[in-house]
Amino acid sequence: MIVADFRLKKNAVTFMENDYLCMWETFHCLLYICIGIASNIFDMEELFNSENLLNLINDENVNPVGSVFKLLLSMTLGAAIGLERRHKGQIAGMRTFALICMGATLAMLVSIYIPERLMGLTENGDPGRIAAQVISGIGFLGAGAIIQMKGSVRGLTTAAGMWMTASIGLAVGASMYGVAVIASMLIILVLTLLERCERHLFKGKEQKIVRLKVNYILQDAEPFRKLFRTHNVHISDEFFRYDYTQGTTIVNFMVRSQDKTDFIALFDKMHATGDVLSLTLTNEVNN
After folding, report:
1. Which of 178-187, 191-200, 210-219 has the least mean pLDDT?
2. I want to staple 77 with a disulfide (CB 3.0 to 4.6 A). Which of 112, 151, 184, 260 is the partner?
3. Tell me: the pLDDT tens digits for 201-250?
């Protein structure tokens, strides 16, 4: 069994190495193709002239050099935002945010290119028609980043960051480089500095859930509420579940308290009231 397992692992490693080698060769082929296309379109000496290069990058019309620069810039800005999210343990990280920003930039470039080149509608065309769909379409990714658990919702900040990153990509595609860079810096500032401010202002006031299960049909929860008040624990909401078949009651108390609250002593007093089957402190409501 050990030998067979070792062989399987060795074959898996070999397969991964071959896979990465194939990807690297494909990347080289694409790079040579891009260089060949660029050499046929541009005079390479003029292309690498700093003045001509800046003119192509700052040109409001769609051109290959400016488009590549915009995609690279949007990839960098998106990856910077995604790095912060990944550092906080979110599933959506550098790759996700880089792809979102690059996709929005590409949509903006296509939206400008179609009326400019294919339809001849420079004066009367609508360069924002395709780009406008990015704002509504990003909602699907944002919804996927939001995780709803019973009693709490997580991922809202990441979803908002995705929406903002898509907007940054559109700004890059529209040649608003300064606005895009400043917006990226402000996002990172909000995600880091304001989070620290929130933690400082609301330290020890995170919402917790006390799950109480008693071996009878609870008619009056006031004795338990009194114990919470005695320990300076504020009850923000309550959820009751009655099981008449088993003759039990489950109560979820959504509470806020200071860090110094002694929940062990509180649970001892709640258990002393009699017929308490279990007590749980968590951040998720259980039915």
Report:
1. 191-200
2. 184
3. 766 566 788 899 999 998 888 889 898 888 888 888 888 999 998 989 99
* Structure confidence at residue 7 (pLDDT): 47
- E strands of 134-197, at which residues? 147-149, 152-154
**More confident position, 34 or 260:** 260
Token pair in block for residue 194: 């304001």
The DSSP symbol for 150 reads T
Judge whether 232 and 263 are in contact, CB under 8 Å: no
If you write DSSP's letter for every residue of 7-55 in order, what string do you get? Answer: HHHHHHHHHHHHHHHHHHHHHHHHHHHHHHHHHHHS-HHHHT-HHHHHH
Average pLDDT, the chain: 76
Q: How far is CA 128 from CA 71, 116, 134, in A?
A: 18, 12, 10
Domain coordinates of the chain in residue numbers? 42-201, 207-282
Torsions phi, psi of 140, nearest 5? -65, -40
Q: Which two tokens stand for residue 200?
A: 């400082």
* Residue 275 φ/ψ region, left for φ over 0, alpha for ψ in the -120 to 50 degree band, beta for the rest: left
Beta bridge partners, 209, equal 254, 282
- The single-letter code of the amino acid at 96 is T
Please tell me what DSSP assigns to residue 269. Answer: H
CB 162 within 8 Å of CB 92: yes
* Residue type (1 letter), 49: N
Calpha distance 266→210 (Å, rounded): 11
Cα distances from 173 to residues 12, 62, 109, 167, 257, in angstroms, run: 41, 9, 6, 10, 48
Tokens linked to 272: 């002393």
Q: What is the DSSP letter of 261?
A: -
Model confidence pLDDT, tens digit, residues 86-108: 877 777 788 888 889 999 998 88
